[in-house]
């Protein structure tokens, strides 16, 4: 994407955003609250068009955002499980909307349950699951909707630190096996570095790319990496960049 801007009335959420992602790459995105991260995802998911002048290309072809609808899989910021559907039927929702046979989709979902730590829970309803399990159902739905590009908007945002660390390792494991291209929004800098091939830091609103850093840490990533000097140095640099932007948006919001 190049020169992508998006305004909502007088609020400019994105301005001149540019990003190019390679197939199979895992890109993490951090930035102050309200800087336009979810807006960016809504555009890439085809739910919203950028303002005039924005250029989108998907697989070497220029396109409108709406042409991307259904071509990428998207896990929005809230898990959006339907309370009246059990685990399996929540997991196959996107496939069903797409017109897949319910029977086939259920069979595939059932086979995937153990990998997502949900074996034996197929008949449970969302209110019977822990927060971590609900997130895994939502992630499973995103994986089942087999698209090369996956957008994950703070998928672990609601989890406690320990569950979150487990989920990060688990996601990397699943990703190694299924190799999708992933764009991943988070507020957690450790998470961004631990997961990503590349970390993007966004500016305060209107959002643009402030900093992009390659993460040259070996894979598979092991938990002890977080204390490695390269990790710590990168974290310092990214935290400084975010803090600078967070201060700007704080000052703008308080009118100070
Ligand atoms: N549909 C909309 N209509 C009007 N304003 C919107 C709409 N969507 C987003 N905005 C505004 O655009 C700005 C960016 O919102 P966005 O949700 O993209 O931020 P974000 O970076 O995802 O924030 P957070 O980290 O809190 O999730 C905000 O000021 C928000 O109020
Ligand atoms: Mg958001």
From TrEMBL:
- List the residue ranges forming a coiled coil, or say none: none
Report whether Transmembrane shows up as a keyword of the record. no
Give the matching PROSITE patterns: ABC_TRANSPORTER_2 (PS50893)
What are the recorded GO MF terms, alphabetically?
A: ATP binding
Which controlled-vocabulary keywords does the entry list? ATP-binding, Nucleotide-binding, Transport
Q: Where is the ABC transporter domain?
A: 1-229
Which family is annotated? Belongs to the ABC transporter superfamily.
Q: What is this protein called?
A: ABC transporter ATP-binding protein
């Amino acid at each position: 994407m190049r020169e992508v801007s998006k305004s909502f009335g007088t609020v400019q959420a994105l301005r001149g955003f540019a990003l190019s992602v390679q197939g199979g790459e895992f890109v993490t995105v951090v930035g102050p609250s309200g800087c336009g991260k979810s807006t960016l995802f809504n555009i890439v998911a085809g739910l919203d068009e950028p303002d005039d002048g924005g250029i989108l290309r998907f697989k070497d072809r220029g396109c409108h955002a709406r042409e991307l609808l259904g071509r990428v899989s998207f896990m929005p910021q809230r898990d959006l499980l339907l309370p009246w559907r059990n685990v399996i039927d929540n997991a196959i929702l996107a496939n069903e909307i797409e017109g897949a046979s319910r029977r086939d989709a259920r069979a595939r979902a059932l086979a995937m349950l153990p990998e997502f730590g949900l074996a034996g829970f197929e008949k449970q309803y969302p209110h019977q699951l822990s927060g971590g399990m609900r997130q895994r159902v939502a992630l499973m739905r995103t994986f089942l909707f087999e698209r090369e590009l996956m957008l994950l908007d703070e998928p672990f945002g609601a989890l406690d630190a320990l569950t979150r660390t487990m989920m990060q390792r688990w996601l990397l494991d699943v990703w190694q096996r299924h190799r999708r291209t992933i764009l991943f929004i988070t507020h957690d800098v450790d998470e961004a570095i631990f997961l990503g091939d590349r970390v993007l830091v966004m500016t305060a609103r209107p959002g643009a790319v402030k900093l992009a850093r390659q993460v040259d840490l070996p894979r598979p990533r092991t938990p002890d990496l977080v204390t490695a000097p390269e990790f710590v140095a990168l974290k310092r640099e990214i935290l400084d960049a975010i803090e600078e932007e967070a201060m700007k948006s704080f000052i703008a919001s308080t009118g100070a």
